[in-house]
Amino acid sequence: xxxxxxxxSELSRKxxxxxxxxxxxxKMASRLKKLAREAKIDGFRPGKVPQHVVKKMFGERVRGxxxxxxIQTTYFEALQNQDLKPVGHPHIHPSDETEGFxxxxxxxxxxxxxxxxxxxxxxxxxxxxxxxxxxxxMIAKLRAQKKEWHAVERDAQENxxxxxxxxxxxxxxxxxxxxxxxxxxxxxxxxxxxxxxxNLLGLKAGTAKSFEVFFPEQYGNEKLxxxxxxxxxxxxxxxxxxxxxTDEAFIKxxxxxxxxxxxxxxxxKANMERELEQALRGKLKxxxxxxxxxxxxxxxxxxxxxxxxxxxxxPYLETxxxxxxxxxxxxxxxxxxxxxxxxxxxxGLILGExxxxxxxxxxxxxxxxxxxxxxxxxxxxxxxxxxYFSDQSRLKDVQQMVLEDQTVEWLVAQAVVSDETxxxxxxxxxxxxxxx
Length: 436
Fold this sequence. Notes:
Blueprint: E1 2-7, E2 12-19, H1 21-38, H2 51-81, E3 86-94, E4 101-109, E5 122-127, H3 132-145, E6 148-151, E7 161-170, E8 173-174, E9 180-186, E10 208-214, E11 228-242, H4 248-252, H5 261-295, H6 302-322, H7 335-357, H8 364-375, H9 381-389, H10 392-414, E12 416-421, H11 424-428
Parallel strand pairs: 5-12
Antiparallel strand pairs: 1-2, 2-4, 3-4, 6-11, 7-8, 7-9, 7-11, 10-11
């Protein structure tokens, strides 16, 4: 077997494998001999068909089968011989040559990654604590979640809920399918297009108003994006929010059976501290990933990039399918996902290299404790733990997450870390959701 490899781009390779004719003929002879024993051909007794007849009848088919077998048996041997690590499946092109057998395999290889300098990554680590004012704000949010609405006979104010009927036209065309009846709008919640809620201030039940606002340039409906819209609004009811007292009944609704305000505050603070700790870890992880991505250059194989783009697009494709839309209708072209996909693939390759070069081993005890922590919020934690361990794919997801966290911790231990004190809301109010 002869092997030659051509580098067609930084990561693309074209490997040509040639197999001598005598090897092909030897395999054909063996296969035809077996066929001669088994073939049933008119005019010949079983097992007595001459070799030349068998070859004439089945030779072309047998040679094709042998070609497929030779590709299967020699491809990985050739890769090992040339110390090549392909990404994904190759594109195989058999040759038309009649002497011997030759084929070319085109594929990408994994990039070589240099980890030089990763022991001096510069990382900013955010530090935050839960203060009493943060607890007060959280309790206020919990009260707001259980607010009730009471009808009032006054002009609508900020934070009121106003029930309206309305119709909208743009360039003379009605886009609300007639009139929308009994629609509730919470003023200040920004659920409507800019300017709409502001025009409801000062209105009371039984009044009507016409006004014009503009749809945002990036509005989802292309026909309306950036266009002026005229609305005709009739007010049916104005309601003001009434917050519940933090009494025993309110506290018990959050699982504090004794109904004590002190116990409630302690429980709220403990939950906030758990969420803050998780958010701080996420912030630190993103800081490490940003530093790593900026420090380590890596060529991303197109095969992996395409796969990752498909992963990122999948939820949108499923949404489009449910809504009986084409992806084009969602205005999400492929290049929207490519930069994020490139980052995720590159970091996955870099982390894999860090793990291998530094012999970072999965902590199985930590996998179990992570699953147990995930299960705590469910009614039957033991069932959830069993659910994870009963399925290898689910377990593998957690294992990958834990190994990734271990690797980030290893990188932090090597990095030049500076701490930055920030407020609770700076972390929890504006969490960075950037992924790998």
